[in-house]
Amino acid sequence: VQLVESGGGSVQAGGSRRLSCTPSGSIYNDNCMGWIRQAPGMEREAVAAIYTGLGRPLYADSVLGRFTISKDNARKMVWLQMNSLKPEDTAMYYCAAAAATCRSHMHFDHWGQGTQVTVS
Length: 120
Prior knowledge:
Shape: globular
Strand content: over 45%
């Protein structure tokens, strides 16, 4: 299982950043794909999820209205568009997957190495 993230970097508060995730071939179809983040000294937080089949995306309250998760089933890729970024969004962001439909608690079984997003 491999999930490769890209798109992290430094951005000023109020700015935007788009993260990309490319899962390995065996991970995508019939999976809940999502993004989790972890800041230093903080617990890991699932921020967005989307099922590769039919279904509405899910978001943590902390990012609702600012982040958008999207997918391309033909390319088997997932993105996280982050707008109106705040310093508290600073974290390592991980692409994640679970072989199930997405549930409200956004549990994932696999995640990548992460990409750092720093908002100042």
